[in-house]
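Example record used in the benchmark description.
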Amino acid sequence: MDSTSDIAIGQVVKSKAGRDKGRIFLVLNIIDDKYVSIVDGDLRKLENPKTKKAKHLDVYNTVVPELKYKLDDMKILNDAFIRKILEPFN
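Model output (structure tokens):
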């Protein structure tokens, strides 16, 4: 996958390249047709998301639809919420 056309905000992804290889993340933002911002609530927190190329990600079928709504209200969205969502995948 070389583009972000199949990736949605709130989608669960796994890094397949780089020093974070094998870690599970959540897509926070789609930057353009090649890059996304990802967080895991642990090493990559909401204040400092990682920008990663889409071709370096394995995309899971799971999408967290509540993430779009919680992005509007950052008080509800926190790193503990992200970790709780990703816990079954680790």
